[in-house]
Structure formats: structure tokens, C-alpha cells
């Protein structure tokens, strides 16, 4: 979207000159107090250029300064660039004192004013993003997300953080299970003690037991000295067992004993060592199904999952997609000193249409390469390795009934996501009744939407 710049100046020549200099923007004008305030309210411009000498007394800066003060009072984030005549340094300084962003002396030089406006705009955008982030960062500051879906999860996590309840974090790969585990720890009374994470899937089965429980000197060949396991290193703090579903069945019994009795024995050891830790587990696997086919112990399942928390996949967090994308764009732009600073409309549509099977981790990877690869300042779908949505989803058929079916199914899915899976809201967004919605779900075989209710 093109940014709007408000030019407050009574000189038609200067108005024209500024319009010509700022062709990248939507420039709107005002030539006195009333029209300036009306335009400010109407367009909410991030940047205003303001001539201080305005009627009724153009020779005096008082009207300009009055407008400036009122703009700052009405919209404090507005960046006002004050334009002054020669020898008006005093007024310029006064204006900066009142909250103007910068000042500029006539005659107007096209390149300089362009530069000033761009700088002001960048700053305004940065401040705007920071304010969104600040709002988004509830107690759990690591977790970026505005969607209802993620906010509910944050609330649940905040509540259980204060307790020692075993929490099971469920969700697809890359949805942020480890981030949640760390946040729960940081909001718990154990926050000053260690947070120790171990991934049960990445450690070979024969080493996992000694990694977790530690071993005594001489317990096996190569055990040259007594070594603490992850459980003991987490003493007083939190142990995060990632991919608990991948824990070998043999080791599950030992794990269960530790969770029930809160004591461990090192491999090759005879002493029971008491441990006081909180355990948070995570998995992307379907544990109930594993319990059913006996590859996961039922008693352990209930022990680790006193409170399960389901972290939604990114594709169900519609409004977070762009927020996260902008957050990562800013981070990587600084990290790689790159020039990319925004997304094209097509890139935004492509991101919203993408299924994100790898969730936030996939988004980080895509953003990182896009920031490095982008030729200009605007990131395109291609830079993200995404197909433009228009080309991708344009139905190839010319059969009108099929075209309509495809379009309707797509609209239903979008409304469903936007309304956070609420059927009444979905129907409302689509402008149809709930019974009609249900009959459309049947008609178009959108069973997955029904099962989620
Ligand atoms: N809400 C969030 N805000 C910002 N960054 C996030 C958020 N959630 C996750 N991330 C980032 O996304 C990446 C993946 O998160 P994390 O490792 O926690 O996912 P995971 O579900 O544990 O993945 P896996 O199951 O593959 O281990 C990390 O780099 C993390 O910092």
C-alpha cells in the first residue's frame, strides 16, 4: 500500500513541487489550520510536511506552530517535517521543541526532501511495529503472536507456569514447543535454576539412558569418571524432554519410576539420588495412538500429560503469519545488513496462501534466504520460494460449476481460519446461515473442518 504524506502549505508552487518530488507516495494537501486537521483525521498520514508561515499571518510562524502542536496532540506518532524560510532558525528550533521530527529550509531541493520523508517514514514504521510487538508480548515475551488461537495457549501456559504440573506440549514440528517450554520455565518459581533440554529422538537409543540418568565411573567401557545426567543437571529447575514419543519402550519404565518417586539411580550406581525438578515434555506424535498400539506406556502417558497444551500450526494462525514475517524480516535485515524492508502484495498473498508444513521454523528459513536474495527493497514471492497465489490457485477448468465450487471451498476455508475455527463466525463472515454452511461442508467434502469443531 502506498503511504500517504500530508503537505501543509499555502503556496501552490511549492505544493506542485512537493507532489512532483514525492511521486512514490500518495500526497494530499492542506493550506490552513482547518483543512490540515481535517486531512490529518481523514488520512492518518505517518509523515507531514508543514510550512510554518501560513494564513492568516504568513509572515509569522504562529499558525504553523499551532497546527504542529495540535497534530502532535491528536496523533503523537506523526513525523512532522517543518519547512521554514531563510533566517527562521529560531522558529525551526521551537518547532523541534514542540515535537517536530526535523526541519528543512526553503528553497526545496527534491532529493533532500525525498530523503527526509523516507527517513521519517522508516522511523514511523519501526515505531509502529515495535508498538505492535509490545502489545503482542504479553507475559510470555518470546512468543510473537496476536491470533486468538495463540493467545489462548499463552494464557493457559501462564496459568500452569506457577505450578509444578507436568505439561505435555503437542504440536507439529516447528510450531514453537521448545519456545513455550522455555517461557513456562521463565515464568515459574524455578526461573533462576537451570532449564535443561534433551531431544529423545536425536540421541541413539543406547546412549539415551546414560544421557538422562548419568553414570558411575566404571559402569561400562569408557566410563572413566562419574558423570551427571541431564536430570541431575536440571536439579531445582526444569527438564524439557523433547520428542518424548521417541523414547524407547525399555527406558519408559525407568522414566516413569523417576516421575513417580522423584529419585534416580545413575547407570551402574546403587544409590538413590533425590531430584527436585519440573518436567515438561513435547511431541509431534499421536501419543494416544501409540498407547493403543502399545509403543508408548499408558501410565507414562498420563504421568507426563497432566495438562496437555496443543500449539496450533501456523496455517491456522492467519493473522500471525504477517506479524511473524515482519518480525523475522526486521531481525534478518539487521543481521545481514540487507536492504529488503517490506513485502509486495503478491508476497503477502503467497504467504497467507502457503500451508507452512514446517511452521515457524520454515518461515524463518524462507525469510532468511529471501532477505539475502532479494534484489530490491521489496520482497517478492519468488524470493521466498513461493508461487504467486494467483497463478497457483487459478482453477484451470472452464466449467462454471467447478469454478464456483473451487472458489466457494476456498472462501469457506479462509473464513474458517479467520474466525479461529468458530462455525457461527465462519457462517457470519460468509454471509450464510449455519445450516447452509454445514450443507456446503458436506457438498464440498470439507470433512476436516467439521471434525475440528
Ligand atoms: N511464537 C513465536 N515467536 C517467535 N519465534 C518463534 C515462535 N515460536 C517458535 N519460534 C521460533 O521458531 C523456531 C522453531 O521453534 P521450536 O524449536 O520451539 O519448535 P518445536 O515445536 O519445538 O519444533 P520441533 O518439534 O521440530 O522440535 C525457533 O527458532 C523459535 O525461536
From TrEMBL:
Residues covered by the Sigma-54 factor interaction domain: 143-372
Modified residues (4-aspartylphosphate): 51
Record has rRNA-binding as a keyword: no
SMART domains recorded: AAA, REC
Domain Response regulatory: 4-121
One Pfam family matching this protein: AAA_lid_14
Entry GO MF terms: ATP binding; sequence-specific DNA binding
PROSITE patterns in the record: RESPONSE_REGULATORY (PS50110), SIGMA54_INTERACT_2 (PS00676), SIGMA54_INTERACT_4 (PS50045)
UniProt entry keywords in alphabetical sequence: ATP-binding, Nucleotide-binding, Phosphoprotein, Transcription, Transcription regulation
Domain of life where this protein originates: Bacteria
PANTHER family membership: ALGINATE BIOSYNTHESIS TRANSCRIPTIONAL REGULATORY PROTEIN ALGB, TRANSCRIPTIONAL REGULATORY PROTEIN
NCBIfam families associated with the record: PEP_resp_reg
UniProt-recorded name of the protein: PEP-CTERM-box response regulator transcription factor
Organism annotation: Alteromonas profundi
Amino acid at each position: 500500500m502506498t503511504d500517504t504524506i500530508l503537505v501543509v502549505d499555502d503556496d501552490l508552487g511549492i505544493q506542485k513541487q512537493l507532489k512532483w518530488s514525492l511521486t512514490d507516495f500518495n500526497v494530499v494537501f492542506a493550506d490552513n489550520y482547518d483543512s490540515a486537521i481535517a486531512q490529518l483525521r481523514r488520512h492518518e498520514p505517518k509523515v507531514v510536511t508543514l510550512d510554518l508561515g501560513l494564513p492568516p499571518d504568513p509572515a509569522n510562524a504562529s499558525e504553523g506552530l499551532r497546527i504542529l502542536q495540535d497534530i502532535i496532540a491528536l496523533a503523537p506518532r506523526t513525523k512532522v517535517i517543518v519547512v521554514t524560510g531563510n533566517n527562521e532558525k529560531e522558529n525551526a528550533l521551537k518547532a523541534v521543541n514542540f515535537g517536530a521530527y526535523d526541519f528543512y529550509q526553503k528553497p526545496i531541493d527534491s532529493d533532500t526532501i525525498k530523503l527526509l520523508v523516507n527517513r521519517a517514514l522508516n522511523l514511523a514504521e519501526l515505531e509502529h511495529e515495535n508498538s505492535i510487538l509490545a502489545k503482542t508480548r504479553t507475559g510470555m515475551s518470546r512468543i510473537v503472536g496476536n491470533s486468538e488461537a495463540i493467545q489462548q495457549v499463552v494464557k493457559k501456559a501462564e496459568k500452569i507456569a506457577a505450578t509444578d504440573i507436568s505439561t505435555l506440549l503437542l504440536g507439529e514440528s516447528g510450531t514453537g514447543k521448545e519456545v513455550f517450554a522455555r517461557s513456562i520455565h521463565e515464568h515459574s518459581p524455578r526461573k533462576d535454576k537451570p532449564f535443561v533440554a534433551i531431544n529423545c529422538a536425536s540421541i541413539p537409543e543406547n546412549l539415551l539412558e546414560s544421557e538422562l540418568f548419568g553414570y558411575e565411573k566404571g559402569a561400562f567401557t569408557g566410563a572413566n569418571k562419574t558423570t551427571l545426567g541431564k536430570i541431575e543437571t536440571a536439579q531445582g529447575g526444569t527438564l524439557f524432554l523433547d520428542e518424548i514419543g521417541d523414547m524407547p519402550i525399555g527406558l519408559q519404565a525407568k522414566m516413569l519410576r523417576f516421575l513417580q518417586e522423584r529419585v534416580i539411580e545413575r547407570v551402574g550406581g546403587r544409590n538413590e539420588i533425590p531430584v527436585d525438578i519440573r518436567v515438561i515434555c513435547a511431541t509431534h506424535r499421536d501419543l494416544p495412538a501409540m498407547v493403543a498400539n502399545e509403543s508408548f506406556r499408558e501410565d507414562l502417558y498420563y504421568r507426563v500429560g497432566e495438562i496437555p497444551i496443543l500449539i496450533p500450526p501456523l496455517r491456522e494462525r492467519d493473522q500471525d503469519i504477517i506479524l511473524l514475517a515482519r518480525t523475522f524480516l526486521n531481525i534478518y535485515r539487521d543481521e545481514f545488513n540487507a536492504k529488503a524492508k517490506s513485502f509486495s502484495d503478491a508476497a503477502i498473498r503467497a504467504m497467507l496462501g502457503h500451508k507452512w508444513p514446517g511452521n515457524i521454523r520454515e518461515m524463518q528459513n524462507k525469510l532468511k534466504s529471501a532477505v539475502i536474495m532479494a534484489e530490491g527493497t521489496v520482497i517478492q514471492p519468488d524470493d521466498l520460494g513461493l508461487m504467486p497465489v494467483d497463478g497457483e490457485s487459478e482453477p484451470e477448468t472452464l466449467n462454471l460449476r467447478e469454478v464456483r465450487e473451487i472458489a466457494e471451498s476456498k472462501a469457506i476455508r479462509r473464513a474458517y481460519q479467520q474466525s479461529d475455527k468458530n462455525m457461527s463466525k465462519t457462517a457470519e463472515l460468509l454471509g450464510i446461515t449455519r445450516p447452509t454452511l454445514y450443507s456446503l461442508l458436506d457438498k464440498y467434502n470439507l470433512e476436516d473442518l467439521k471434525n475440528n469443531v
